[in-house]
Specification:
Elements lengths: L14 E5 L9 H20 L4 H14 L18 E8 L4 E9 L5 H11 L4 E3 H10 L13 H12 L9 E6 L5 E7 L20 E4 L3 E7 L1 H7 L1 H12 L2 H14 L5 E7 L4 E5 L6 E4 L11
Parallel strand pairs: 3-4
Antiparallel strand pairs: 1-5, 1-11, 2-3, 2-6, 5-6, 7-8, 8-9, 9-10
Helix pairs in contact: 1-2, 2-3, 7-8
The protein binds aspartic acid.
Aspartic acid (ASP) binds next to β8 and α6.
Length: 303
C-alpha cells in the first residue's frame, strides 16, 4: 500500500468509530450500548478539541478497558489456568508507526497504553509476556492488583468453561479515528478467548490482522475468532477491499465473508476510510458499535 507521504495535505472532517466485540450476548445489548457510547464520546472529545487520531483511539480504548463489561483490561476473560493475559495493538497511518503487546500478565489495567509506548519507542513493534511487562515498568506504566481486573462475570464464565468448553467469547474492544489533519489511527485490546492456553496470542496483538491503519486508505479494528483472523490477515485485506471498492460498508462486508469462507471463523470489524466514512460488518448476532462525527448531534449506536 502506498504511504500517506503522497497524500495532499488537507483539513478533514474528523470521525471515530468504536466496537465492543463480536460475539456479544444480545441479552446484554443495553449495557454494551452504554459502554460503546461512553467510549466513542471519550475519543470524540479528543478529536473535537483538535487532538490527534492516536490520542482519540487510545482514549476510547482505555475507556472500554476500564469498563468491566468488556473483555479488555478490567473484565478480561481468564486463561485455562485462571489468570489474565492481555493483547493490544495501536497504529497510526501516516508513517505506519505501530506498537503492540501480547500475553501481557494481568497486572496492567490499560494494555493499550503499553502498546502506545512501544509505538513511541520506535525500537520494536511487538513485545510479549514478561518482556512486555518489564518494558511497561521501565516507562512508568502503573501496575494494579491482579484481583482488581478479575470480574465475577469472568470468574463464572471460567467455572462454566470447565463444564461447557464452548462458552461464548466476545467483548474485545477497538477504535478507529480520522483527525482534522488527515491522520488515521486504529487500536484494539482484548483478554483474548475464554479458557485460552497461557501464552496464546490472538489477532488483536498483530498488526495487519486485528489492527491496521494507512492514512491514504483507512483504518480497521477486527474482532472474533483470532486464529481465523490471523489466517486471512483480515485487517490488511479489509483495507485492500476498501481501496478497490471505495465503499466502507461494502469493504467490511466482503472482509467478513472472507473471514467466514476462507478463514473458517466468525467475527466482525469496523473501518474508517480516508474521507472519514465509517463502515462495519459482523457475521455474529451482535457487535456493539458507536460512531461519532460533526454531522451527528450525538453518537450513532446502530444496534
Ligand atoms: N479476536 C480476539 C482474540 O482472538 C477475541 C475477540 O475478538 O473476541 O483474541
Amino acid at each position: 500500500m502506498s504511504s500517506s507521504a503522497e497524500r495532499a495535505p488537507a483539513i478533514r472532517v474528523p470521525a471515530i468509530v468504536v466496537h465492543g466485540g463480536a460475539g456479544a450476548d444480545p441479552s446484554q445489548a443495553p449495557e454494551f450500548r452504554q459502554g460503546v457510547r461512553a467510549a466513542v464520546l471519550a475519543g470524540w472529545r479528543v478529536l473535537a478539541a483538535g487532538g490527534g487520531a492516536l490520542d482519540a483511539v487510545e482514549g476510547a480504548v482505555r475507556a472500554l478497558e476500564d469498563d468491566p463489561r468488556f473483555n479488555a483490561g478490567r473484565g478480561s476473560v481468564l486463561t485455562r489456568d485462571g489468570t489474565i493475559e492481555t493483547d493490544a495493538s495501536i497504529m497510526e497511518g501516516d508513517r505506519l508507526q505501530c506498537g503492540a503487546v501480547a500475553a501481557l500478565p494481568g497486572i496492567v489495567a490499560n494494555p493499550v497504553a503499553v502498546a502506545r509506548k512501544v509505538l513511541e519507542s520506535r525500537q520494536h513493534v511487538l513485545l510479549v509476556a514478561h518482556g512486555a511487562l518489564a518494558f511497561a515498568r521501565s516507562v512508568g506504566i502503573p501496575e494494579c492488583d491482579p484481583a482488581s481486573l478479575v470480574t465475577d462475570r469472568q470468574r463464572k464464565r471460567h467455572a462454566e468453561l470447565a463444564r461447557t468448553p464452548t462458552s461464548p467469547g466476545g467483548g474485545t474492544v477497538g477504535a478507529v479515528a480520522l483527525d482534522r489533519s488527515g491522520t488515521i489511527a486504529a487500536a484494539t485490546s482484548t483478554g483474548g478467548t475464554p479458557g485460552k492456553l497461557p501464552g496464546r496470542v490472538g489477532d488483536s496483538a498483530l498488526i495487519g490482522c486485528g489492527t491496521y491503519a494507512d492514512s491514504s486508505l483507512g483504518g480497521v479494528s477486527c474482532t472474533g475468532d483470532g486464529e481465523a483472523i490471523i489466517r486471512v490477515v483480515l485487517g490488511h485485506r479489509a483495507l485492500r477491499y476498501l481501496k478497490d471498492a471505495d465503499d466502507p460498508d461494502y469493504a467490511a462486508k466482503v472482509a467478513v465473508d472472507l473471514l467466514v469462507e476462507e478463514g473458517v471463523g466468525q467475527g466482525g470489524l469496523i473501518l474508517i476510510d480516508w474521507r472519514g466514512r465509517p463502515g462495519y460488518a459482523t457475521s455474529t448476532r451482535l457487535m456493539p458499535v458507536a460512531i461519532m462525527s460533526p454531522a451527528l448531534d450525538e453518537p450513532r449506536v446502530p444496534f
